[in-house]
Design brief:
There is one protein chain. This protein has one helix and no strands. By secondary structure, the chain is mainly alpha-helical. The longest helix has 28 residues. The model has no long low-confidence stretch (mean pLDDT about 95).
Length: about 30
């Protein structure tokens, strides 16, 4: 795997974690 691919994968992982966290925040805000 190239370094660029590694960077892309890391960025995707960060985005997914951020998205999941926001989703939890929203859910707790509405319950």
């Amino acid at each position: 795997m190239t370094e660029l691919e590694m960077h892309l994968l890391n960025a995707l992982e960060q985005l997914q974690q951020d998205y999941t966290q926001r989703l939890k925040d929203w859910e707790s805000a509405f319950t």
